[in-house]
Amino acid sequence: MRRLCPSLTDLQAFEMAARHGSFTRAAQELSVTQGAVSKQVKQLERFVGVELFLRLRHGLVLTEAGRLYLAKIQVGLGQIEAATLELISHQGQGGMLHLTSMPTFGARWLIPRLAGFMRLRPDIHVEFLPHIKGYDFSAPELDAAVRFGEGFWPGSGADYIVGRDVVPVGSPKLFPHLCKTPQDLLKHPLMHHTSALEGWTDWFTQAGCDTRRAREGARFDQYNLLSQAAAAGFGIALIPRCLIEDELRDGKLAALIDLPIRARQGYYLCYPETKSNLPTLQAFRQWLMEESLAAEPRAS
Fold first, then answer.
1. φ/ψ (deg, to 5) at 192
2. Residue 145 dihedral angles phi and psi, to the nearest 5°
3. What gap in Å lies between CA 37 and CA 55, rounded to an integer?
4. Which of 17, 82, 110, 153 sits 20 to 30 Å CA-CA off 53?
């Protein structure tokens, strides 16, 4: 279907004239005549059927419709310019990958490994957008997002990375020895992540013991806060092992029982289906899946 889009030349003339408040100054910057700019703006007004400027003796003044239209097309023109400059500078190779990530995962797992990708593909630049944008693939600038969940998001592909290998942890000062049975954990306060409130229930179910107290306890909205609370002795937390490798190694946290139980939720690389063939995304995805297998080998 043909797009309802005016001439790019007319849009540029309108944007330039609006910015300068003058056809003459716009013409100087565009290296054309004043008459050419005036003609292009009139063509645009005929196309949209709306007057965009009030032509006064002392210069041009945007109409209210023109002001609103300008604000919207400036974003599009800026994106076209940025995309063109990126294509020219990279000559079709590499480019920019716009990504979001859950904060704790990004800081604890992804960023420490990202230097490896940069060495492998120095032509691809990863730009992190605010993670709150990671659930809205309608934003044209977003290429992919690391999300936490069960792996099903309508309209997007999802590749499992890590995070389903979970471990009950607490302060080594309070737990100098391993707990003998899963039931021993229920003698202590349990702590929860707000996005994984069924985590303890699932864990105790797989461990084969009572789950009636599994939903009790304090809640935290980030695993970073949850791990700090556990290290401070607030109680026991169930945390993906990939996020607390340093704390376990340094003795700030202790794994309280050795049971190979897998959670239903984990971290996934998600991307809109329309961008699945994006070269920068394909390169990043291939590298990330290799890192994923090295960090958490899948059961055969």
1. -130, 155
2. -145, 140
3. 14
4. 82
Task: Output the pLDDT for position 114.
Answer: 97
Average pLDDT, the chain: 90
DSSP letter string over 150-167? SS--TTEEEEE-S--BEE
Q: Quote the strand ranges of 199-253, DSSP E.
A: 218-220, 236-240
For residue 149, give the nearest of 139, 132, 135, 169 by alpha carbon: 135
Secondary structure (3-state) at 237:
strand
Residues with Cβ within 8 Å of 198's Cβ and at least 6 positions away in sequence, in order, are: 264
Q: What's the chain's length in residues?
A: 300
Q: What is the tens place of the pLDDT at every residue in 143-193?
A: 999 999 999 998 899 999 999 999 999 999 998 888 889 999 999 999 999
Burial class (CB in 10 A: 0-12, 13-18, 19+), 232: exposed
Q: Is 96 helix (H, G, I), strand (E, B) or coil?
A: strand
Residue closest to 173 by CA, chosen among 94, 252, 245: 252
